[in-house]
Amino acid sequence: MTQRFSILKQPIFSTLNQHLIDHPTPSNLSHWWGFGPLAGIRPAIQIVTGVFPAMHYTPHVDPAFNSVEHIMRDVEGGWLLRYMHANGASMFSIVVYPHIFRGLYHASYDSPREFVWCLGVVISPFMIVTASIGHALPRGQMSFRGATVITSSASAIPVVGDTTVTRPWGGFPVDNATSNRFSSPHYSLPLIPVGASPLHPAALHQYGSNNPLGVHSKMDKIAFYPYFYVKDLVGRVASAILSSIWISCAPNVLGHPDNYIPANPMATPPHIVPEWYSPPIHAIPRSIPDKSGGVAAIALVFPSLLALPFMKSSYVRSSSLPDLPETLSVFPGGFLTIRSDKM
């Protein structure tokens, strides 16, 4: 007797069916697990909303600021794309930070999901660097001073510190060469997170998701479709509504007024304020009196996160039955929030 034809059993479609439809998923996953899918679509949105403004942007020290104003005032729909792109970096961080802290709190980095965690950690610095250099491109006063302060901190590196600073600058000040050297990586670096994003859930589906109870079981599982499609859809609709309200009603709420002033190397703002999603990194050197020690501490952030899966292992990984590492994982968020407020 011949079997009925099913497109889901054909090459490629069978893989998609395995990962997106029939994948067995713990039935007790909460909405905290919905931040992962939201983080997965954000890089693609950033690329789409960044490509079209890039056609009108001029990476030159003189017309860079005016080209951004041209996008906002003269290009049809340019204001919308620019606000979507600029605020998209904040929206990306809003979903990524809970995704990371949920992984820490529930020890999702533990065996057998070490590769999933490490892949996510590798994606993170590309996200941070892309956002940081993108913030410098409008050539506003705050963008200019922020780029100067952030890049000059590398001068604390022994022996190669000065070279590490002047190479990205293309000279001794942040000037025309810097705009060119920042614009190209800002276009190309996002391709790495976008390319690695499908690998992250694919590696996760090899062993399945962790769950709030923290105990691996093959019994209490359901198909990913339609149950978690609907659950994730709720989060995506809520995210789309909040994003629309944000972009339409308060697009500059997280911006800085000094960034609407063209960069002036002869004037310094009273306070150089980083983007709100950057203080978790900026708080590290501010907490260490020595400049070299602060730079070294920043350099150890991601290696420490990569080493985390190999430092501890336990059978039960639950927020209901927490051990000390899970309990302490809630403190970095509070500490960084307080510390960021002082910056």
Task: Report Rg.
Answer: 22 Å
Strands of the largest sheet, in order across it?
Answer: 1-2
DSSP helical segment count:
16
Distance between the ends: 72 Å
Helix vs. strand class: mainly alpha
What oligomeric assembly is this protein in? single chain
Q: What's the order of the H and E elements? A: HEHHHHHHHHHEHHHHHH
Mean pLDDT: 83
Shape: globular
List unreliable stretches of 5+ residues. Answer: 338-343
Largest sheet: 2 strands, antiparallel
Q: Which strand-content bin applies to the residues?
A: under 5%
Percent helix among the residues? 55-70%
Main location: mitochondrion
GO molecular function, one term: oxidoreductase activity
Subcellular location: Mitochondrion inner membrane
Membrane topology: Multi-pass membrane protein
Q: Which key features would you list for this structure?
A:
disordered C terminus, mainly alpha, two-stranded antiparallel ribbon, electron transport, single chain, 343 residues, transmembrane, Cytb/b6-like_sf, quinol-cytochrome-c reductase activity, globular
